[in-house]
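Table S2 (text version). Query chain:
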Amino acid sequence: MLSGLALLLLACLHMRVQGKLRTQGPGCDEYLGSGKSLDKCGVCGGDNTTCRLVSGVFKHSLSKIGYHKIVEIPEGATKINITEMAKSRNYLALRSRSGRSIINGNWAIDRPGKYEGGGTMFTYRRPNEISSTTGESFVADGPTNEILDVYMIFQQPNPGVHYEYILPSEKTDPQANHKQEGNDLNRQGGFSHHNNVFQHSREGEERGGYSPRLPDNQVTAVLPPRRDREYSWKLAGSTECSASCGKGFQYSVFHCVHHQKNLQVSETLCDSSHKPKSQEEPCNLQPCPAFWDIGEWSECSKTCGLGMQQRQILCRQVYANHTLNVHMSRCQHLERPETTSTCQMKICSEWQIRSAWSPCSVPCGLGQRSREVRCVSNVGDFVPDDECNMHLRPVHVENCDSGPCAKSWFYTEWGNRCSAECGMGVRTRGVLCLTNHITSLPLEGCGSERPPDSQVCNNGPCENGFEWFTGPWSQCSVECGTGSQQRSVVCLMKSDEGFTIMPPYECSSLERPLSQQSCKLKACGAKWYHTDWSSCSKTCEGGFRVREVRCLSDDMLSSEKCDETIKPAAKEDCNPEPCIPHKDDNCRDKYFNCNVVVQARLCVYDYYKTTCCASCSRVAHRVSHHKGRS
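Corresponding structure-token output:
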């Protein structure tokens, strides 16, 4: 007999466990109440640190039409997404390292759908399949079991391809975490089993019941035996075949039935843990008939008028949910679709002359005239010029000659300002000989009587005043580059009688004009510059001297634009005169036989140098002269 305290404890425990079973399902670790879920790396209860996201954009420019490898998907990759960033006439293709084509291989464009490869299933989409501005794409959950290569079938400029996938950063054993959890729970006095709540004992199973595992210091109890099962699972047949031909699959179906009445009842009355696993069986293995897979028409070869367009056709056959390319002969029983067709986007626009020539732009001499030329569509609307053939456009502007023109003198009104503030001065006006449109005037020119362009003016008597007067600037001191120019500056006193030159201090209260300024007629361009000659390498018998020569631009930077034919010499000979030995009156031979001393080569000794000074000096001079020539 169990004590009241033990029964109460057992009842509370049973209610708590049953409450958890009803309110909380198993986590990803299959432990009831654990609350664990898969992270983005697919790790149960993970923190997203066991994998890394690889992403990027392929933006390289391509030039050759055909297949170009753009990215590699490594083995073990998950959450794969390859997407064109904008719609284009290019295609994406997928191929394994073993050479097997998965999507769009061998110049055959597959239909959108699901394709198996690399141990996972890829979903292939086209731009017109999704309502977005992106282009083609294929995605897969992974993981891949081999390296896959992504290609672009290039036909027009690459809009960019975005790729991303997830790779594991290191291999982990998911079961290790589960084992550690179990050990920790045991140490804490909890329950240890696959569902973290119950531990079925062999003895309990034989009695048809179960016993919760309690801590060792608690009282254990045995519940009453369970009644025989009234409901059980029974095979009721199979599902329909997933394909009508080319190998499909069907799966066994089990129903929950009353054990004695053999009637189907609700599945909740049967133990779901005892439900047999549905078996997969192939069906409809006969091959599907081949069919023509017709590609999309290409763009018309001309934007207007009659053009041509092409499309690709392939003989295809479905087997085991895969569409395969087969030999054209398998479709010979079907009518072969056309691969080329004529097309016409619209009737081409044409040039039309909409007006007559305008009058010449000038009444005499050479001018221009124009007319209106427009590009007109087939319905008579004006359209932009680029819709017509620019090579066939009629001339809309041309020169015209209205005959010879006469010339006359033209002049302005006299200026209001007199050149002198007081006394006699001059005022001017502009006088020009220009073409006159009046043809009755003589054609040979404006005549010899040129109207005056200046006249005398008087602003009244002058009081004595001082003023700086300047002469004209002199010519620039250089023909090119920066030079200087001067002018005379004098202090004058102005009176009714005229001007009188005064000392400069009389005008000291006035600002003195510049008497010198820099000038630059034009840029000199690159010029040769050189340094002074160095000292001669020898004082006689011919030496040489050198200097540095550089080509410099106007801004004194090194240049290569100087004329090589006038380049100054960087080296020259110097001091060609013969060397004259210094004559020493004390240097003479003291013996008559000094020639014997020379022949015996005794001049190296100081005694003989002194007694036979003249002979030894001549020999030393000849030796040094010979070495200099060498």
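Notes on Table S2: The two ends are 135 Å apart (CA to CA). The mean pLDDT is 78.
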